[in-house]
Amino acid sequence: MKKIAYITSGKIGIPRFTFNELILLKENGIDFNLCLTQLKPGPCMPKAEWKYYTADRIKALREFVKLLFLKKGILKLFIEAKNKKVLSYFFISLSFYKDIQNNNIESLHCQMGDDKLYIGYFLKKIMNIPLSVTVHAHELYQRKVYDSNDEIKELYSFCDKVITISNFNSKIINKSFGVEGNKLEVMRLFPDIDNLNYVKNKSKILIVANWAEKKGYNILLKALKKMERDDYVLWVVGGSYFSENTVDVEKLVKEYGMENQVAILGRQGSPILDILFYACDIFCLPSYTEFYSDDKPAEREGIPVALMEAMAWGKPVIATKHAGNPELVEKTLVKERDVDELSEAISYLLNNKDKWKAIGLRNQEIINKNFSKSNINILVDIINNF
User: Fold this and answer.
1) Which of 45, 114, 181, 317 has the most C-beta neighbours closer than 10 Å?
2) CATH 3.40.50.410, domain 203-375, yes or no
3) pLDDT tens string for the chain (386 positions)?
């Protein structure tokens, strides 16, 4: 299996097209060490099994001191980087150097042909292994391209292969930077929808709730796990409750080994939340009562608005015989904390898709009759009569 160092940025996670490319590289027998100039939270993050590291200033300085004594030409490269005003990329390359060296890397690939390419440039000079780069679009129109064209020419000429995403770009690279012949390759990008398998051919179960214990996340995940089926996905909208009774849903999902069936979507508001209510098939909220040590109720729902919203969208819902829920939901209601009964209720709806529409229409009737916006008139009348 070929092994490369794949150099890119994780400024807002990993760009989706890069994430998809990495998945396909693995599938095609290319192993990689992911070298990230930075890594901050974003929609696509490195998979747990991927080997990756981020730039580290202390590691870079330590490596620089070592290489001054072990590698000829390091001081010369330092001076070159200083003169070209790319010292930061020189030190980023050094922070990756030891890990790359220790992992039998055979070649370097830079995703983006802007100044980050200097990371690969310096690593190639130090390690003498092949370097390729993918040039997208924004790199071709940066001010430096016009003001320091000779420097960019030198940078691209040092690469063993320059890849770009369109014939249009290829002509610019050839004309502006003199890259030609079999050194220049066009590789168009590709869409890869639902690579996490959270959408297609799945029944979509939605829960919208803070990660509070009373919302029943633990019971829901146990019930889903008990079903032992893979024809559904759970969409989780919510986040930490910032309280002592917060449940770490992400941790629970990992503990139950359900990463491939649970999509954690974070906190959402309109219009994203409306889109999710519209797109889901079933809404589930298995709330239960929390108790103090003396068995007195500590936490309960009133009547959850999220249940009302799902019903207003015409969705079948599953809730518990809890607090005010029976005033809202005709069916399906299960006992609090009952994993078996909840599992059976979810399975029933998954197995009887033909009933979804009728249940949803009845839920809309309930909302229109008893839970409409006209209820505000009660407060309006009270205020007007003071």
Assistant:
1) 317
2) no
3) 899 999 999 999 999 899 999 999 999 999 999 999 999 988 889 998 999 999 999 999 999 999 999 888 999 999 999 999 999 999 999 999 999 999 999 999 999 999 999 999 999 999 999 999 999 999 999 998 889 899 999 999 999 999 999 999 999 999 999 998 899 999 999 888 877 778 888 999 999 999 999 999 999 999 999 999 999 999 999 998 778 889 999 999 999 999 989 999 999 999 999 999 999 999 999 999 999 999 999 999 999 999 999 999 999 999 999 999 999 999 899 999 999 999 999 999 999 999 999 999 999 999 999 998 999 999 999 999 99
**Domain edges within the chain:** 2-186, 203-375
Tokens 């649970």, residue? 262
d(CA 327, CA 315): 17
CA trace torsion 287, 292, 295, 297 (10° rounding): -40
- Fold of the CATH domain 2-186: Rossmann fold (3.40.50)
